[in-house]
Design a protein that fits this description.
Number of strands: 7
Largest sheet: 5 strands, mixed
Structural class: alpha/beta
Distance between the termini: 12 Å
CATH class: Alpha Beta
Oligomer: single chain
Number of domains: 1
CATH architecture: 3-Layer(aba) Sandwich
Order of helices and strands: EEEHEHEHEEH
Radius of gyration: 15 Å
Length: 148
């Protein structure tokens, strides 16, 4: 499953995705199948979590935060390696403070895993990639019927 960065719709594609540039079934925009993290606001996040058929990993971050910047390549690698099986989203807490506040975020970076429309795990602080991968897999294992 791949999320359209233009309209937010989820699109089912075969694994691996076909060659060429697939397009979104809803808005017909080019569909990014790389697994690269996508920026969202609070509204887009809520829609994605509610409708995602695959787990969602959310990164709450800010541009001035050193650990947040250090986490960016880890999230990019994780998103690319799990493309189609995990959606990685990023919410800039400076640009969307109301969304972060509504979620009770007290420090950044904060990472949240959602599965089947609900939060299943939350953790603050920078993690090395192997630890983050383990944490995401364990979080999904704790939610009924969800696996990466």
């Amino acid at each position: 499953m791949f999320r359209c960065p233009s309209c937010g719709a989820f699109n089912r594609l075969p694994q691996p995705p076909p060659p060429g540039a697939p397009s979104c079934g809803r808005c017909h925009s080019a569909l990014d199948v790389s697994g690269k993290p996508q920026e969202v606001d609070g509204e887009a996040l809520a829609r994605a979590v509610a409708s995602s058929p695959v787990p969602v990993l959310l990164d709450l971050w800010a541009p001035w935060c050193g650990p947040c910047r250090a986490a960016a390549p880890i999230l990019e690698e994780l998103g690319r390696s799990q493309a189609g099986r995990l959606v990685v989203l990023k919410l800039n807490t400076d640009e969307h403070p109301a969304a972060a506040s509504a979620m009770g975020v007290r420090g950044i970076p904060t990472f949240v895993v959602y599965a089947q429309g609900r939060e299943v795990a939350r953790r603050s602080g920078l993690m090395p990639r192997p630890e983050m991968e383990r944490w995401v897999v364990e979080a999904q294992g704790s939610s009924a019927g969800t696996r990466m």
